[in-house]
Amino acid sequence: MTSMVSNRPVIGITTRLNHQDETNYLKSNYGEAIFQAGGLPILIPLIPSPAYIDSLISHLDGILLTGSNSDVDPMRYGQAAHLNLEEVHFERDEVDHLLLTAAEAQRLPVLGICYGLQAINVFRGGTLFQDLPAQVENVIQHRQRGPVARLSHGLQINRESLLAKLAGGTSVRVNSVHHQAIDELGSELEAIAWSADGVIEAVISTKPGQFILGVQWHPEINWSKDTFSQAIFKHFVAEAAVRG
User: Which ranges of the chain have pLDDT less than 70?
Assistant: First the structure.
């Protein structure tokens, strides 16, 4: 069943949770980036129900797993909570898990950003560094100070990868606002970009039949002026259009 509307593939975008006032919310730049790239953005409320996700999935052509104001629950990858673990939101963890399960069954393309990349890795059986400064030697600053749009550190990209084609080279600078990252890589995922300290910054799925790309930085923040960010969203939406 195709869900494309007015020749725009429909992209479901996960929201964030504020427990204090029980709201789901999301910054506008995610939807703007998808729309600019040719997609039709639809926000997904955090309803951790298989029945809800199963009803929703047939109306989507792709899924964008956004950043979050929470950490993935380490119980999901078999670890106890590190002292520096921050807030954990069951609703976001579970919705991402259900969406990834459904996307795999329907072969929907997925783009994961920051927390979304980490959710993909955990879904595929991988683990995370729960706090980079405490667990990685000689780590650089990954939670940058100052404006989040600033391109604060460099990446080295696998020259044979899709990401190198989108970046137009193997070296690029990105913003960085995270304190967790991939430790053990999940099944059928390939690391394709790294920061100078060896932290994995991007992965792509090697499993046939489904496009999945995850990035640790936030291309949605700079989409309006950064050609690399625009290329990431355009490629993802193009994958969704083919599926639709």
Answer: 1-5, 244
CB-based contacts of 146: which residues, under 8 Å, 6+ apart? Answer: none
Q: Is 114 a catalytic site residue?
A: yes
Q: Taking the model in full, what pTM does it have? A: 0.96
Question: Given 142, 220, 235, 239, which residue is catalytic?
Answer: 220
Whether residue 220 lies in the annotated active site: yes
**Distance between CA 12 and CA 55 in Å, rounded?**
13
At the topology level, CATH places domain 10-243 in Rossmann fold (3.40.50)
With left for phi above 0 and alpha for psi between -120 and 50, is residue 22 left, alpha or beta?
Answer: left
Cα separation, 8 vs 40, whole angstroms: 6
Catalytic one among 89, 114, 178, 235? 114
Would residue 239 show up in a list of annotated catalytic residues for this protein? no
Q: Which residues of 151-160 are buried (b: 16+ CB within 10 A; e: fewer)?
A: bbbebbbbee
* pLDDT tens track for 31-89: 999 999 999 999 999 999 999 999 999 999 999 999 999 999 999 999 999 999 999 99
Q: Which two tokens stand for residue 33?
A: 């980036």
Are 141 and 202 spatial neighbours (Cβ–Cβ below 8 Å)? no
Please give the DSSP secondary-structure letter assigned to residue 193.
Answer: E
Q: 201, 218, 235, 239: which one is catalytic? A: 218
- Asked whether the beta carbons of 172 and 154 are under 8 A apart, the reply is yes
